Every structure is written in structure tokens, then in C-alpha cells.
């Protein structure tokens, strides 16, 4: 088949979970199919919406079609993007379009595919279709509330005053006028998204928790939703050899943003009674990373000196660059992550995981089986669970060896088999279309 993947970023320009997964899937599908990717860059020196062709630097079989979104990235539908995508559809004539994410691209690009009778598959990586900001985390809190409160569900006015208030004027007399405008904007966006969802033939959810949210809270029909966990290039997670003579070391992999809860991890680390170490991997995000480093420096005693800030790594090198250098991985996110890649990768490599008892994170970590769960958004609870591993390193190693609990052998799903299963879904959709 000729397959066109759509994703809002591609490694190494963008190296978060959905981008890394899409790259891995493309590389596996390329064994049997012709793979193209429609993705974006943000190059302020190029004209907006300019297109350029590239190849995946890690696998030249994968063709990249890159549109520039340096200034229009915050919108949700763009006629210029739709036009460029339609031209690409006419040039390639793909058998199927598989969307990984439409943020920073154009939500309406699914319509040119449907107009041409091309099946559309959509992998749900977060809540962006049902939450304009994607994570059900609010930007503004009530007095006395924790910053970045978790949202209990989408509502047009609530979205306006809790997440888009940064665009309001500072005149209290204009508050209701600004709120009404942004409430209308959110309402139009959500109505449009409903039409987008109607145009999708099949949604893939990598966590049962996520599937349930889209079915029960957003009304996606059961016959359009399929649970399918992510696939992984398991050979990349083999051969772990823990660096000798290191003290017990916790690792964090991820972006330095509030939704990831890395500030809670730093706070919890400061409460430990040990000489343990914390290594934080991820791309420097300027002021946000500087704020975290300042927080680390203000910890009591020498705790801040035992936090190491590590460079970004290639996913293909995750074992020597990351897992060889830590004894446990911590996933402290405050948003309800669905199926974090890092949890699966750590478990495949034999590394136990500490994460929150919330969302899809708790779905893949069994408490005291292959890791530990802490109370969501509670740094003291996190510190208590971290202390347990420091005090019992052999137990930590035993839990890590149990791996992925959803399989009989502890292995996460193999990417090659995963890609074959997705290709079968593509073929089924194509067969259904021919019958109609």
C-alpha cells in the first residue's frame, strides 16, 4: 500500500511521544509499504506554508513532506494547509491517510481525503480533539488552588475563562465581552471538531482509559474506536548494563513543562533520606528549564547538587544513554497521560517505574509488581515511594524484571507485529470501501 501519515512534528525537530511513535511506525511499515509523512517545521526565515521534501535521516525509505508553520501554528484550521495537503494527495494518490496529530497543522485537512474517497485512521495520543489545549489542564486557577488545575470536562465558557484568558484585556469592565468572544471561538472550534471526527473512519486508542474518555465523554461510537497499545522496536531496548559504582539513581525523561510534573519530582527528591541521584533528560526549554534548575538549587542540604541535567538523546540510543544510567524511571505527570512511551520502554529494558495512580499511567504500572504508584499530584507521596526503592534496591531490580504485565512474557508489543496489525486495519477499510 501507499500510506500517508500525518503528524505535527517529526524527529529530530520534534521528539515527544507521538512524534517518536510515528517515526517508529513509519520505519516498520516501510518494510512492506511505501511511506510518506505530512508534517511541519517552524522556520521563521521561510515563507509561511512553504513546502519542502526531505527523507527521514534515520531511514531514507520514509519520505517527508514538510510544511512551514512558523506563524500560523496556534490556529486549528488553515485553508492554505488544506490546499497543500490536497495537492499532495493528488500527487501521491495514497491508499490510506493515518493521522497522528493535527495540532499546529489543520484540523480540516481530513476533508480533502474524504472527498477523494481515501480512508482516514486517527491515533488518539491525547485529548486534543475534545479539549482545545489537549491535556485537560487549566491555565488559570482560583485563589488558593494549585497552579495548573486538572479540568473535569470541556465547557465552552470554562475553556474561555480558564485557558484563553491570557488573550483578554486587563479592563474588568471588558471581561464579559472578552469572555463572550472566546466562548464563541471555543464553541465554533468544538463544532468543527465534531465534523472532523465524523470524517474519520477509525480511531485507535493506546489506552483503555483514553478509549473510555472518548466514548463516554465525547460520544465517539464504539464501532469507530479500537484499543491498540503502541508498538516498540524492542531490539533498541536490549543489552542494558547498569553503570557500576553509581549510587541509586532516578531518571526522568520528558519535556520541562508543568503538565509533566517535573517540579513535583524535584520537590520529592529533596525529601529523600539518602545520597540518591536524580538525572533529568530533555531538551532545554529556556525559562522553564531555568526555573526548574533554580528550584533544584534551593533544595535543602546537597540535594540540588545530586540532580544532573542531561542532554536530549536519540530514541535509538535510549539504553546506553538513559537506562544504563538509572535504576528507576519516574513519570510524575499531572495530566492524565494515556500510554506513555517511556513507561513501556523502561519496562522492556528491565527498569521499574514510579508513576501517578491516574489515567493511562496507572493502567501500565502495577503497584508493587513492576513499579510503584503514588497519589496523583502529591510530592510527599511520591517521595515515600521513591524512598522505598532507595531502601530496597534488590526489590527494585526484581520489579523491573517483570516488565510489561499485559503480556505473558513481560515484553511490550513488537513494532513489526504492531505495524502488521495496523496494515490489516488499513486493508479492511479499503475492502469495506470497495464493497460500498
Give an account of the 3D structure.
By secondary structure, the chain is α/β, with parallel strands linked by helices. Helices cover 36% and strands 16% of the residues. It contains 14 helices and 14 strands. The protein has helices spanning 17-29, 79-92, 110-115, 156-163, 175-199, 208-216, 262-270, 287-297, 318-321, 341-349, 359-364, 379-391, 393-402, 415-435; strands at 2-6, 34-41, 51-56, 59-68, 96-99, 120-123, 202-205, 225-227, 249-253, 277-281, 307-310, 328-331, 353-356, 371-374. An 8-stranded mixed sheet has the order 3-4-2-1-5-6-7-8. The longest helix is centred in the middle third of the chain and has 25 residues, at 175-199. It is globular, with a radius of gyration of 22 Å. The model has no long low-confidence stretch (mean pLDDT 94).
Please give the structural blueprint:
Elements: E1 2-6, H1 17-29, E2 34-41, E3 51-56, E4 59-68, H2 79-92, E5 96-99, H3 110-115, E6 120-123, H4 156-163, H5 175-199, E7 202-205, H6 208-216, E8 225-227, E9 249-253, H7 262-270, E10 277-281, H8 287-297, E11 307-310, H9 318-321, E12 328-331, H10 341-349, E13 353-356, H11 359-364, E14 371-374, H12 379-391, H13 393-402, H14 415-435
Parallel strand pairs: 1-2, 1-5, 2-4, 5-6, 6-7, 7-8, 9-10, 9-12, 10-11, 12-13, 13-14
Antiparallel strand pairs: 3-4
Helix pairs in contact: 1-14, 4-5, 7-12
